[in-house]
Design brief:
Layout (H helix, E strand, L loop, with lengths): L6 H22 L5 H14 L4 E5 L2 H11 L7 E4 L6 H8 L3 E4 L11 H7 L4 E5 L10 H11 L4 E3 L7 E4 L2 E4 L6 E5 L13 E5 L2 H10 L21 H34 L16 E2 L5 E4 L3 H10 L29 H9 E4 L7 H18 L1
Parallel strand pairs: 2-3, 2-4, 5-8
Antiparallel strand pairs: 1-9, 6-7, 6-10, 8-9, 11-12
Helix pairs in contact: 1-8, 2-8, 3-4, 3-7, 8-11
The chain binds pyridoxal-5'-phosphate.
The site of pyridoxal-5'-phosphate has 15 residues, from helix 3 and helix 4.
């Protein structure tokens, strides 16, 4: 069995440290926000040069709070990707705003800046790029469009903590270029907690203060409300676990990148191009953190079945683009409207890339894939 992700292997390397900090939180019996959360916020803000960081209850709430802080509301348009996890668009809908889906670049699976520029109207209040699978979107061009039109950018960096991309001649971390950047600490993320968690980062002190209030029902001072917020707080337990893991994140990320490199080598060795298999290429000036290693595979659904039978974990992220989800039928999109996203949904498959994966396991994955196509003729 080769799982898509094996968190137990990671846990075995940090078990005593985790047990200790969990025990410390229980000794203190202080579970919501507090010292651990403050410390994690400072460490993340410092590590990524983000200015300010606000710990929140999930990546979804990081996005929701960011849009609330911008005042996004009924009838406002937010331009985003149809090829992402549901939360990205779910939060737009929840604020009674309108998700405006535009197509992706086939090579990166990220928002196509030209399509974004073409979709801007006088109701556009936000551009919401997603740094999918751990690769930053083309922020250079997206920021140029946003600045020209005077529209704020919120980065969905849920899958991309630690990713970088050169913008304006300088490498910047995912999340630090927009008005806010949103991280998820869902357990399967590169920095994953022991449950739900998330963070908003921003370079603006007053925005950070606003977000801190919004995450506690808009309360300031306590029990006085000038605005209505949500219960969007991060737990001390999560922060304590995440602080332990943060110290290892760079090494784990390097492990993922090494595995990605090895997959590309194996692609050549096993001549996978002859089957029409495409693996993600490194983009110049971008540091991909490979939350997922996602390729394109002909006969994808049959391959996935075969891999399952052979005990190899793989998954489709994502099988149905958001503009075609039944809940968004009211928006009026039709099949064929966003062809790059639709094609990606039909072809993609993510392979195991977690840092503890062994070379032998990687070779088994690739050998099994080659065997499938050879047997198909
Ligand atoms: C691209 C993207 N956006 C948003 C989210 C939402 O994060 P969470 O699950 O922490 O709410 C996730 C992860 O689940 C994600 O992958």
């Amino acid at each position: 069995m080769i799982p898509l992700l094996d968190l137990k292997r990671q846990y075995e390397t940090i078990r005593p440290r985790i047990e200790k900090v969990v025990q410390d939180v229980f000794e203190k019996q202080a579970f919501i926000l507090g010292e651990e959360v403050r410390a994690l916020e400072e460490e993340i803000a410092e590590k990524y040069g983000a200015g300010y960081a606000v710990g929140v209850s999930s990546g979804t709430d990081a996005l929701l709070l960011s849009l609330m802080a911008l005042g996004v509301g009924e009838g406002d348009e937010v331009i985003t990707s149809p090829f992402t996890f549901f939360a990205t668009a779910g939060v737009i809908h929840r604020l009674q705003a309108v998700p405006v889906f535009v197509d992706i670049e086939p090579g990166t699976f990220n928002l196509d800046p030209e399509a974004v520029a073409a979709a801007v109207t006088d109701r556009t209040v936000c551009i919401l790029p997603v740094h999918l699978f751990g690769l930053m979107a083309d922020m250079q061009r997206l920021l140029t469009i946003a600045r020209e039109k005077g529209i704020p950018v919120v980065e969905d960096a849920a899958q991309a903590i630690g990713a970088r991309r050169v913008v304006g001649g300088k490498a910047a971390f995912a999340g630090t270029l927009g008005e806010t950047g949103c991280f998820s600490f869902f357990p399967s993320k590169n920095l994953g907690g022991a449950g739900d968690g998330g963070m908003v980062v921003t370079g603006d002190a007053s925005r950070a203060e606003q977000l801190r209030r919004l995450r506690v029902h808009g309360s300031h001072p306590k029990y006085y409300h000038h605005v209505v917020g949500i219960n969007g707080r991060l737990d001390a337990l999560q922060a304590a676990v995440l602080r332990v893991k943060l110290a290892f994140l760079d090494a784990w990320t390097e492990g993922r990148r090494e595995n990605a490199r090895r997959y590309r080598d194996l692609h050549a060795t096993y001549r996978l191009a002859r089957f029409g298999i495409v693996f993600p290429e490194e983009i110049e000036g971008a540091y991909h953190v490979y939350n997922q290693f996602t390729g394109r595979f002909p006969k994808r659904d049959r391959l996935l079945e075969y891999l399952k039978e052979q005990g190899i974990g793989a998954a489709i992220y994502y099988p149905l683009p958001l503009h075609l989800q039944p809940c968004f039928a009211y928006l009026g999109y039709r099949k064929g409207d966003l062809p790059n996203a639709e094609k990606a949904a039909d072809e993609v498959l993510s392979l195991p890339v977690f840092p503890e994966l062994t070379e032998e396991e990687q070779e088994t994955v690739i050998r099994t894939i080659a065997a499938f196509y050879e047997s198909e003729g």
